[in-house]
């Protein structure tokens, strides 16, 4: 009985680690830098690919790169 | 035969932009979007593609300025946007116009932006004459 309980606990721990790793990797992917904007006061803002603003900017920019100026 | 001054001024901007492309070979294409939304110095002839490029650039500049306002700033001075095909670089000119450029994916973006900032005064002068 104790052996079965130990295995269940081990499997639970492994599943937890796998879930945490997946979330970490997804966060990293969403955090990929897609745009950097510098403002008139010298400060800057970096937008991640996972953000709504970042996606929108990247989509318009992609069409522009494709077409050229 | 008298030369049309307007076309001469337009050619001056084209020369300045051609010089910028020669100086910074990572820049594939570049043009100026005036504050009024006119596209100057584009490599596209008048037509659908030029209008599409103008509309998309205007939309991009609008989005960038929206981010600036959301962050409590008056406007953006410079922007670089990465896509899976390459980059779009924006440098604000005097009077609200924007110098825009596209590059490939492996471009040295920092260097291209540096060249764009260095060319700014000459582009401003030529764009003002062409507008």
From TrEMBL, chain B:
SMART domains: Robl_LC7 (SM00960)
Pfam families assigned: Robl_LC7
Domain Roadblock/LAMTOR2: 13-103
InterPro entries found in the cross-reference section: Roadblock/LAMTOR2_dom (IPR004942)
Name by which UniProt lists this protein: Roadblock/LC7
Organism: Rubrobacter xylanophilus (strain DSM 9941 / JCM 11954 / NBRC 16129 / PRD-1)
